[in-house]
Structures are given as C-alpha cells and as structure tokens.
Amino acid sequence: MQDDAETPRGHRSLGTDRLAAFSDGVFSIAATLLVLDLAVHPPGTPLEQVLHAWPGYLGYLVSFLTIGGAWLLHASLTDRLTRSDPNFLRLNLLILLVVAFLPFPTGLVTDALHTGEGQRVAVTIYGLTLLAIHVLGSALNEYARREHLCPPRGDGQDEQGTHRRLLPIVIGYVIAILTGLVVPGAAVALYFGIAVYLIVPFREVVRLLFRRS
Amino acid sequence: MQDDAETPRGHRSLGTDRLAAFSDGVFSIAATLLVLDLAVHPPGTPLEQVLHAWPGYLGYLVSFLTIGGAWLLHASLTDRLTRSDPNFLRLNLLILLVVAFLPFPTGLVTDALHTGEGQRVAVTIYGLTLLAIHVLGSALNEYARREHLCPPRGDGQDEQGTHRRLLPIVIGYVIAILTGLVVPGAAVALYFGIAVYLIVPFREVVRLLFRRS
Amino acid sequence: MQDDAETPRGHRSLGTDRLAAFSDGVFSIAATLLVLDLAVHPPGTPLEQVLHAWPGYLGYLVSFLTIGGAWLLHASLTDRLTRSDPNFLRLNLLILLVVAFLPFPTGLVTDALHTGEGQRVAVTIYGLTLLAIHVLGSALNEYARREHLCPPRGDGQDEQGTHRRLLPIVIGYVIAILTGLVVPGAAVALYFGIAVYLIVPFREVVRLLFRRS
Amino acid sequence: MQDDAETPRGHRSLGTDRLAAFSDGVFSIAATLLVLDLAVHPPGTPLEQVLHAWPGYLGYLVSFLTIGGAWLLHASLTDRLTRSDPNFLRLNLLILLVVAFLPFPTGLVTDALHTGEGQRVAVTIYGLTLLAIHVLGSALNEYARREHLCPPRGDGQDEQGTHRRLLPIVIGYVIAILTGLVVPGAAVALYFGIAVYLIVPFREVVRLLFRRS
C-alpha cells in the first residue's frame, strides 16, 4: 500500500503488493493443482500399479519445479518493483494465463507417456507452454527495465544477471522443442534438466562445497 | 492492519488488507481452476484430438482474461480504500460469489460448442454471469464513492475514469447477451472482444506507438 | 511481522499476519472449490438440464454465503489480535479443517436433493458441519477474550456484539438440524436463511433506508 | 518488502514476505484439496454409504492435521527470518513439492483401506511422504541456523525447541513406516497419533489444566 505513487504521466497504478498477492496465488495454485492428475490404474499388483504411474510423477516433478523456478524469477523481479503501470499489470496477466494453463499440457504428456500414443504432439505443446512462460517473463523483465519500474543498481549486475539466466533457458527450450519433434522422450529429459537448472543454485553449491573443504 | 480506524458511526470494520487477501484469493483460484475443464477426447489422431478441443481453449482464454480484467478493476478500487464497512464487505462477497461461479458457465459454453447443442442457453448463462460481475462491481464502486471509503481526488478523474470504463463494458455485455439469443457463436466472439478490451491498455499502446516513432 | 512479541510466559508465537494469510487461503479456496460440484446431466433439453441442476446452485449459494459469513466473523476476530499463542493457532486449525470439509456435505445435500434419496442423512451431516464451524468459532472468540489476545475495548461493545451475533446462529443451526430429521427440505431453507442473516447487514440496511427517506 | 537487505556476498535475495505468501498458498491449497477425494458409493442405505466412507474421513483428518502441523513449524521458522538466500528458497520449494504431493498418497491409503488391497504399499508411500516433509523441514531449519538467517536468541531455547520437536517426529515416522510393512493398519493409527501430537499443545494443555484447578 506504500506504492501509491503516481506514475510520471499521472496514471495512478496498482500497489505492487496486490500484484504480488494475485501472482503468488496463481503460481501456488497452478503448482498444487498438478497433483490432481496423479492416479494409479489396474492391471497389476498394487506395487506395480504405483510404479507404472511413473509418467505422472515425472510430469508432476518437472512442472512443479518449472513453476517454482518461474516463480523465483517472477518474484525476484516483482519484489524489486517500486511501482507498476497498466502495461506491466496486463503483461503479467498473460504470464499468469500461461502458468495456470500448464497443468493441461502436463496431463497430455503424462497420458502420452502412459499410452505411448501422441507423444510428439503432447511434448511439443508442453515445450511451447514452457517457452511462452519464459519469453513472456523476459518481456516483462525488459519492460520493467525500460520503463524504470525498478530502482537502478549501481553495478548493473542484476539486469545482466537476469538476462544471463533467462537467455540460456529460452535457448534450451527451443532446442528441446526441436528435439521433441524427432525423439519425444529426449525432450522430456531436457525439460527435466532445465527445471533442475532453474532450481538448483549451482554457483551456490560450488561455493558451499569449496567453503566446506 | 493500519486500517483499524473506527467508522464515523462507531462501527469498527475489517482492515482492508484482509478484504484484499480474501478477494485476491478467490479471483486467483477461480482463474486457475478453469484449467480443470480442459480435456481431449477421441476420436482422431492425437493432433486432431488436441485441435478439436478448441472450444475449451477459447473458454479458458475468455474467462481467464475476464477474471483478470475484473480483478484489475476490483484491485484498483480496493487498493485505494482507506477503510471498509459492513455493507462494502458483504457486497464484495456477492461479487466473489459470482466470480467463483464463472468456471461452471464456462464449462457449459465449452460443452455446447463441442456438441453443438444448447449453445443459446449456455451462452446466455455465461453472459449473464459476466454482466452480474460488472454490475455488482459498478455498485461496489458507486457505494465506495458515496460513503467516502476512498480519499477524494482533486481532479475527479478517477471516478469518472472508472465509470467511463465500466459503462461501455456493461452495455457491451447486454448487447452480447441479446446477440447470443439469435447467434450464440457471435456472442462468444463479443465476450472475447470485451475481455481483450478489459486487458489491453489501448491508450497506453497508442501512447507507446507514438513515442517510439 | 510486527507481532513478534513474546507471550507473557516466554513462548514466542507466530505473527498474526501468517495466521491470517493461511486462514484466508483456506476460506477462499474452500469457497471457490464449491463450483467443482456443479454439473448438468441428461435427460431433457439444454434449458431443462440447466434448470434441473437447481439443487447444485442452492448448495453453492448456501455454502458460499456461509463460508463468506464465517470468514467475516473469523477475519474480524483475527484482525484485532495483537498476538496469538499455540492454543489459538491449533484451535484455528480445527476450524479450518471443518471449513475445508464443507464442500463434501454440500455435495451430499446436492445429490440427495437431485435423487430424492438420503436427504435426512445428508442434511443432518451438512447442519452438523455448519454448527461445528460456529461452535469452534465461538470457542476461538472466547479463548481470545480470556487470554487477552485482543486489546480491551472501553465500551465492551465488541465482545457482546460477537456473542449477540454467534448465539442466535448456533441456536438456529440446532433448530435446523432437529427440523431436518423430520422435514429435510425445511432444514435447507433454514440454512439458506441463516446464511443470508450472516451476510446481510440488517441494521445497516435499516439505517440506510431511514437516512435516504 | 523490508527484507531487501543484501546478503553478505552481494547476492540480493527475495523478500521473506514473498516466500511466506507462496508457501502459505501451497500449504493451504494442499490442505483444502484433500476434500476432493471424499466420496460416498453404493451399495447400502444412505447412512451406510456415509459410514462406509470412513477411510476417506480418516485420511482427510490425518493429512489435514499433518499439513497444518507442518505449516505451524514452517511458519514459525520463516516468520523469524530476517533474510533468505537462494539455497533457502530452493530447499523451500522442495518441501512445498512434497507437501503438494500429499493428496495423492492420501488417496492411495483411502482406496486401500476401502478395498483392503494394497494397504502395505499405500501406507508405506504415505509414510515416506510424511517423513520427507519433516526431514526436509529439519534441513531447512538447520540451514537457516548455520547461515544465520534468523536473529540469534540469547537463551538458545528456540533452536533446541525446534530440534526437540522435530527429532521425535522423524523417529516416529520411521517406526510407523517399519510397522506398516508388517501391520499397515497400525501405521495409519501411528500417523494419526503423530498428527495429533503435532497439533495438540500438550504442555499448554497441562499448564491450563493446572492453572484452572
């Protein structure tokens, strides 16, 4: 509520805390709804049924980690905002629209891995959804930088840092989508790898390992 | 929690942050639950099945954007409140009741577009729900203005601005509902158009385009 | 985060803002999940199918308004808290457990009204759930008063006001449950009436009517 | 938003309020989604059907209380944080991933108790999930302590207190999992007992009882 400042052009915009509350809500609900797709089915012993449901666990894992990683990027941007503006709010709604859509292609991939049919279609739609989240995220980031919605940082490290993080992810998704057109299974492995990359703080891990020894 | 002020008549009312938290919760959950209605069904190749599910994507898109647009209007009102009162809180609950109901008529429209049956009924119920959200939103806005729940603005721009935005939306929904009684498909197109109008900041786009050139 | 105060006995307790965030989350999700129970079924024309689904709309309406009314009472209590303590937090979890359970008996009542079977059982379970929410709410309110978790009010109006509101509700639910054992349909009407009573600010309405004239 | 402090190594990290909002969201949604697994099925009279659904109520009760108890521990840790760092945020995402997964094994246990088949598998997966939540919670707690993300407490009571609470829980889950390999039903009783232990403030109850007398 401290963000009541007028924008330079006299457009009063929404407090960034409301933007954060709504966005955090959509991210956390989309991530939690993923569990509704998990199910076990006959035939087989109980243990076999649980093990045969592995595509569901894989889809849950990759999508949850991807939403979590996207939330980290999104929250680290919006947490730094000193104000928002109408374009930012609406671009943000588009990102949330795609994030909230993710449980659907996740279910498609899970079903395709189960039945062995339609893997190429499912994996491609899944990849395009992940790509859209991060392309829109890049646009949101770039917009905030151009319109000076975030306070400038003396070292310029932060903008570079976000770009350095987002560009390889976008490239990774493009490669994975193209791979998936030929070998759908390999694309799923790539999406898993990118999700792990989004979540695991490699530099921090290296730092911790060296400090310990 | 800074909103503990007594109302003029000695009725202590709820902090506006709690009102915001509950409302943002319902808006974000209703928007995210829309994905649960998406599904693909045989017959056809995997790609055909995904493409034949287009009514679901359309319903998701229109309803998500409408909820997002309604949230923008709702948040911009409630974010400016300096206090709330019992009537405001209860009128707000009615809006949330209709917003949370939207996934149901969305599903009706999706099913009707799929099967080709009952389109007129589904589209009319959908339109009445959208209309109810915005009529109740207008009432909430008007109530806040009359009871001075928002700080007055010197230029009076804001109240006019909200009215200027809400009136054409309400008129648009009435036209769309009447259209839908004759040509249901055209009404869906109108609902999509209104949702885009709610979301796209046309004046901002024009401003940006001119500034760039 | 301003609520870090130690309790008198040295037990540091959770900030009341976290308690509020978690509670508002459960209330808003439980209310929004109610829509998932709505569905139309053959036979009949599309309009007949929609109209025949009236028990679902009634259940949605009563349960949403009841959760909304319970949230109003809960939020007005927790918003006044200056601190919480372990008992308060745990008693609060029990209330949330019952609130989050409400979609299940709502579905039972809806199904029973549809099929005409098992109405007495469904309506009784529904009533007991509503009663439990408000009895636990009374206990929470009483506990906060005894342990001085809220700042005292000079006029003592507030405690009396809450009691004055909660006691007739509890009595109303007991009467409705007993009625439902004989005439289940009448109990549903009573639950609807109590929900309206929870939401409509009668004194405010009277005040507004008189001021206008 | 007051948590903008730079970490010692120049990594700016996310405000702890965003971390809290996202985490509270996942905890409250996971707890509320549990109700979607409840259902009654023929054969039998309406009352018999409701009574035969007891495994569902038991699963709902144990999982809701466990999530509630885990939320209490999680919130009491994160509420004390003065800052977070990338590792903390990511470790936290892993906990949320397991918490949001809980409705699935809850459904497995419910189904297994209904049908009498696959109880050992279901109960073991359920126990491993509960164990994972608390082991990861211990790791998060330990990490926060080592990296000094919380302000030090003069008496050192708090860290000891958390360890004193978490260690018996972890031991309890290990015992319950091993028990479940032999007598699945006994493990469910143990999970219920641990959930009650997580929620009921025994020391407070004793204190209250003695003060009253």
Number of helices of chain A: 9
Largest interface summary: A-D, 42 and 37 residues
Largest sheet of chain A: none
List low-pLDDT spans of chain A.
1-12
Oligomeric status of the shown chains? homotetramer
What's the shape of chain A?
Answer: globular
Count of distinct strands of chain A? 0
Structural class call of chain A reads: mainly alpha
Mean pLDDT score of chain A: 85
Number of domains of chain A: 1
Q: Which series of helices and strands of chain A comes N to C?
A: HHHHHHHHH
Radius of gyration of chain A: 19 Å
% residues in beta strands of chain A: under 5%
- Give the distance, in angstroms, between the N- and C-terminal Cα atoms of chain A: 46 Å
Give the helix proportion of chain A (percent range): over 70%
Tell me about this structure.
- Chain A has 213 residues and is mainly α.
- Chain A has one domain (16-212).
- Helix content of chain A is 75%, strand content 0%.
- Chain A contains nine helices and no strands.
- In chain A, α1 (16-33) packs parallel to α4.
- Chain A is globular, with a radius of gyration of 19 Å.
- Chain A starts with 15 loop residues before the first helix and ends with a helix.
- The model of chain A is unreliable at 1-12 (pLDDT under 50).
- The A-D interface holds A 2, 17, 20-21, 24-25, 27-29, 31-36, 38, 40, 45-47, 49-50, 60-61, 64-65, 68, 71-72, 75-76, 78-80, 157-158, 199-201, 204, 207-208 and D 1, 4, 9-10, 12, 14-15, 18, 21-22, 25-26, 29-30, 33, 36, 85-87, 89-90, 93, 96-97, 100-104, 108, 112, 117-118, 120-122, 125.
